[in-house]
What does this fold into?
Amino acid sequence: MNENLPPCPQCSCEYTYEMNALVVCPECGHEWVPAEGGADSGAPAEQVVKDSVGNVLKDGDTVVVVKALKVKGSPSGIKAGTKVRNIRLVDGVDGHDIDCKIDGFGAMQLKSSVVKKG
It folds into this structure.
């Protein structure tokens, strides 16, 4: 354990480690950018969202759905290869961290694990 690294903000695990500019929790897999000046600096930690292949996503990116998705109330669903433009990163419910609008389906939230940067 490194005494200078903060515990995980999600599960409070104290065995966090550094990976490039991020701090990683080995128990829950949460990754975050440590706040400058310690945990009491008052600034919220930067949210880091990665796609299915590890690319860091940001607001306004275009992504491609990598696997077919079922959509409640829709007979067809979203096909793999569907391009989604101008995404917005959010703190979503149940791992849905991308807010977007998909042609033919409207506004919805997606998980970053089912898209890749396109």
Observations:
- The CA atoms of residues 60 and 86 lie 4 Å apart.
- Residues 36-43 have pLDDT under 50 and may be disordered.
- The longest strand covers residues 98-102.
